[in-house]
């Protein structure tokens, strides 16, 4: 059984609370995964861009200067 | 022995104790009173009553511990006494999880209209993601083995207007030597007055504590 801290008191969730929480958690986990995937796509794109700019002859400092990295 | 302590809380005479609507009508400069409805000390400066601590954070809900739970509710904490609130959450999850919030009205969660921008900084990498029309507002992440911190600020939750929030989360990802910054800036866009909040973790459980403060209006 899932627990809740209800205004300062730890207790077991009721059946209704448990059902509501379980349904939300599925959606929240999916949202979190989607956000993380979007973040990884952006990171990959940035790394790809950095590699291509480096291939053009830019230094690492110059690459970071134009893409907002450190 | 002070007169008021003879009968303690049952004393008929409680000098200097009143409410904000029953202050002395003929005060003298330097007079101090304690208002039981605002829980504040007020001084008379010769022309007006002034709160002796008129600025800064005021404790709304004392540090409250939670242990191995998936949800943490705090009701009746947002009132007209304050417009802006600061909530400090120190927590550690049982597994890698997102920390989310839902605003509440009369003990019922609101699960619509959350919009936010997330900013992540880890080592030399930064990244940002925007999410709209969500069922919750994410306010933190925890790697599951190290204590994290979320400092959450809410503006106007008790007003029948959109609630604006920002959260700064320190996530100690795989070790205390690899801290990450995760920031969230967003809103609950409905013109709804809320009086409570629910913190939830997306998986597993969390243990820790939270404290709620109000920013004094004057």
Explained architecture:
The complex is a heterodimer of chains A (70) and B (218). Chain A has 70 residues and is mainly alpha-helical. Chain A has a domain at 31-70. Helices cover 70% and strands 11% of the residues of chain A. Chain A contains 2 helices and 2 strands. Chain A has helices at 15-55, 60-67; strands at 3-6, 9-12. Chain A has a two-stranded antiparallel sheet with strand order 1-2. In chain A, strand 1 and strand 2 (9-12) form a beta hairpin. Chain A is rod-shaped and about 65 Å long. The mean pLDDT of chain A is 89. Chain B is mostly beta strands. Chain B has 2 domains: 16-54, no CATH class; 57-215, Jelly Rolls, CATH 2.60.120. In chain B, strands 5-17-7-13-14-15-10-11 form an 8-stranded antiparallel sheet, with no helix packed on it. In chain B, strands 6, 8, 9, 12 and 16 form a 5-stranded antiparallel sheet that branches. The two termini of chain B are 36 Å apart. The mean pLDDT of chain B is 91. The chains are: A mainly alpha (70), B mainly beta (218). At the A-B interface, strand 1 and helix 1 of A face strand 5, strand 6 and strand 11 of B. Strand 1 (3-6) of chain A pairs parallel with strand 6 (71-74) of chain B, so a sheet runs across the interface.
Name the features.
heterodimer, A: 70 residues, mainly alpha, 2 helices, B: 218 residues, mainly beta, Jelly Rolls, 2 domains, eight-stranded antiparallel β-sheet, five-stranded antiparallel β-sheet, 56% strand
């Amino acid at each position: 059984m899932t627990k809740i801290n209800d205004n300062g008191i730890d207790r077991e969730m009721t059946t209704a609370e448990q059902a509501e929480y379980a349904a939300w958690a599925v959606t929240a986990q999916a949202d979190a995964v989607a956000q993380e995937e979007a973040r990884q796509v952006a990171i990959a794109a940035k790394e790809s861009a950095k590699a291509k700019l480096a291939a053009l002859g830019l230094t690492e400092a110059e690459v970071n200067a134009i893409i907002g990295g450190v | 022995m002070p007169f008021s302590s003879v009968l303690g809380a049952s004393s008929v005479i409680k000098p200097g104790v009143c409410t904000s609507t029953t202050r002395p009508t003929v005060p003298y400069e330097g007079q101090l009173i304690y208002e039981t409805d605002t829980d504040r000390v007020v001084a008379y400066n010769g022309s007006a009553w002034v709160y002796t601590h008129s600025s800064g954070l005021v404790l709304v809900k004392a540090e409250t511990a939670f242990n191995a739970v998936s949800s943490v509710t705090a009701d009746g904490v947002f009132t007209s006494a304050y417009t802006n609130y600061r909530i400090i959450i120190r927590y550690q999850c049982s597994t890698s999880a997102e920390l989310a919030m839902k605003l509440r009205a009369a003990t019922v969660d609101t699960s619509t209209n959350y919009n936010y921008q997330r900013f992540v900084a880890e080592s030399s990498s930064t990244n940002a993601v925007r999410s709209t029309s969500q069922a919750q507002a994410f306010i933190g992440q925890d790697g599951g083995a190290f204590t994290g911190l979320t400092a959450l600020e809410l503006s106007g939750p008790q007003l029948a207007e959109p609630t604006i929030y920002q959260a700064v989360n320190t996530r100690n990802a795989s070790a205390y030597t690899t801290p990450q910054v995760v920031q969230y800036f967003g809103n609950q866009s409905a013109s709804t007055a809320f009086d409570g909040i629910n913190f939830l973790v997306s998986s597993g459980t969390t243990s820790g504590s939270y404290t709620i403060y109000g920013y004094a209006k004057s």
